[in-house]
Write a structure and sequence with these properties.
Elements (H helix, E strand, L loop, with lengths): L1 H30 L3 H36 L7 H13 L1 H16 L9
Length: 116
């Protein structure tokens, strides 16, 4: 059951990766290299960078707390470690997709409004 949920989560995250690529391609064609679209992409990248910094900080704190309180006797399988790290890295895509959509609707006018 756990493997099924892992594969299902993996498929969902990979679907978001395809959505992000298609969305970026569509918006690049619509907006080109306008200042507003560049600022949306920069804001989205800063959100992703903050996410990675938070993940790496949590991992560092967890490593320190594990060494201090649990000791060296606890082992985690390599399989679980790779799956968790892969999921953390792929979680970037849903975050990027929703950040792109949020900042685009917040800071950019609709495409038809400035084509008069």
């Amino acid at each position: 059951m756990i493997k099924f949920l892992s594969v299902l989560g993996l498929l969902m995250l990979l679907t978001f990766r395809l959505l992000v690529d298609a969305y970026k391609r569509q918006k690049d064609e619509e907006h080109g290299d306008t200042f507003q679209w560049q600022s949306v992409k920069i804001k989205t990248n800063s959100i992703i960078l903050t996410f990675y910094q938070a993940i790496f900080s949590l991992i560092a704190v967890a490593c320190i707390l594990t060494d201090l309180f649990i000791g060296k006797g606890v082992l985690i399988s390599l399989d679980k470690t790779l799956w968790y790290s892969f999921f953390f890295l792929l979680f970037r895509y849903p975050l990027e997709y929703f950040a792109l959509r949020f900042y685009e609707h917040k800071s950019m006018p609709p495409v038809n409004s400035y084509r008069r």
